[in-house]
């Protein structure tokens, strides 16, 4: 479809929308790539394909649906495609036609990307395409980045890179256009941070929502790896935790954590413990009803400290780990045994039970990101 040409819409009362949509789709008259046209006074326009005769469509709708007095045809100069991949392909091909006609858009358009507010991040594999060296070094490359950003309706573009092998697990995003400072809302929560310095895993959304759906009313929680509040905020806002002690070592993450806490009005229910959690967790002995251990590939270095952070009345630990699929049951049993040994070592007197094992996502071939919910009772 040529998005530069006018788009024809069949405009009806919104109350007839579902029936008209079904009629158009059944007859092959609905243009799937274009957003519906919403008008005032409860009316909606459905885009028609270029090959559909608008008067025929209107007459059929009138006769079959009985909407003759309220069914009109309208033309709009131009409407964006509802499919961002479609928009992106068009934008890239237009640039290539002018600046690099030997290449096709398929060689340069990524199949997926991550959106953080007004920043779109392409996967690191995108830079491995044969077209990347030619395009990235082109004197008009900025015009391409601008066209791609406009197609995705963002102001900034970047490319993902492997997480740095440093104490902070820093992001190594390469910015192509705009600012790496982002602010966005996810599941009713505001996050704000520098994406070039901080890792944010949108792929963990199901686990953030699972944690947020738990009942933590009145609880004191220790978040051993708080980051910019990935789990801290859902526990405070959605799960209803009374207070969270957030441990974080990365200064950039701490800045994002504080900014997000202010934006969500959580500063009075959050205590940030800056520095290495091997040190800060010592200060939290016996204060928690629950501890969250959200580090991959393993949070094992602070298992003992988080056990000691639980109150004498016991509580829950959420232990994240990367585990081979076929070893999940064995790992669960081994983890329980490790904690039983730690309980015996410190004379805590807890029983240790596996309440749940959550398979969050595939981390690598045959390797799962899992979360083990462990319950400790006197």
Helix/strand-derived category reads alpha/beta
Number of domains: 3
In which order are the strands of the major sheet placed? 13-12-11-14-15-17-16
* Architecture per CATH nomenclature, i.e. the level-2 architecture of the largest domain: 3-Layer(aba) Sandwich
Shape: elongated
Instruction: Summarize model confidence as the mean pLDDT.
Output: 89
The run of helices and strands is EHEEHEHEEHHEEEEHEHEHEHEHEHEE
Approximately how much beta-strand content do the residues carry?
A: 25-35%
CATH topology of the largest domain: Rossmann fold
* Estimated helix fraction: 25-40%
DSSP helix count? 11
Annotation, overall tally of beta strands = 17
Q: Kindly provide the name of the CATH class of the largest domain.
A: Alpha Beta
* Largest sheet entry: 7 strands, mixed
The CATH superfamily of the largest domain bears the name: Vaccinia Virus protein VP39
Pick out the low-confidence regions.
Answer: none
What gyration radius follows from the Cα positions, in whole Å? 26 Å
- The N- to C-terminal Cα distance equals 67 Å
């Amino acid at each position: 479809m040529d998005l530069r040409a006018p788009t024809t819409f069949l405009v009806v009362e919104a109350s007839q929308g579902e029936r008209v949509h079904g009629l158009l789709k059944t007859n092959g008259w609905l243009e799937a790539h274009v957003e519906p046209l919403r008008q005032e006074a409860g009316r909606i326009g459905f885009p028609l394909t270029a090959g559909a005769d608008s008067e025929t469509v209107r007459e059929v709708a009138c006769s079959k649906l009985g909407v003759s007095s309220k069914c009109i045809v309208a033309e709009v100069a131009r409407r964006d495609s509802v499919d961002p991949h479609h928009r992106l392909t068009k934008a890239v091909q237009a640039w290539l036609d002018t600046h690099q006609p030997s290449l096709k858009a398929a060689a340069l358009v990524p199949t997926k990307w991550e959106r953080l507010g007004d920043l779109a991040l392409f996967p690191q594999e995108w830079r491995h395409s044969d077209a990347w060296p030619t395009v990235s070094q082109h004197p008009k490359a900025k015009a391409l980045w601008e066209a791609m950003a406009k197609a995705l309706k963002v102001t900034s573009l970047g490319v993902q890179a492997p997480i740095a092998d440093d104490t902070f697990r820093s992001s190594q995003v390469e910015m192509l256009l705009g600012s790496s400072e982002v602010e966005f809302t996810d599941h009713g929560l505001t996050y704000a941070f520098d994406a070039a310095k901080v890792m944010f895993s949108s792929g963990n959304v199901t686990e953030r929502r699972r944690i947020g759906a738990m009942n933590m009313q009145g609880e004191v929680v220790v978040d051993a790896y708080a980051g910019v509040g990935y789990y801290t905020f859902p526990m405070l806002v959605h799960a209803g935790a009374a207070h969270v002690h957030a441990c974080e070592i990365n200064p950039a993450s701490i800045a994002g954590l504080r900014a997000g806490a202010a934006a969500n009005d959580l500063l009075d229910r959050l205590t940030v413990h800056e520095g290495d959690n091997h040190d800060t967790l010592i200060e939290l002995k016996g204060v928690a009803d629950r501890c969250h251990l959200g580090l991959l590939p393993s949070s094992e270095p602070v298992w003992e400290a988080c056990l000691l952070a639980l109150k004498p009345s016991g509580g829950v630990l959420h232990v994240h780990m990367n585990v081979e699929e076929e070893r999940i049951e064995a790992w669960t049993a081994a983890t329980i045994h490790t904690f039983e040994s730690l309980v015996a070592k410190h004379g805590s007197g807890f029983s240790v039970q596996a309440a749940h094992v959550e398979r969050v996502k595939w981390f690598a071939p045959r390797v799962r990101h899992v979360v083990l919910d462990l319950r400790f009772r006197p």
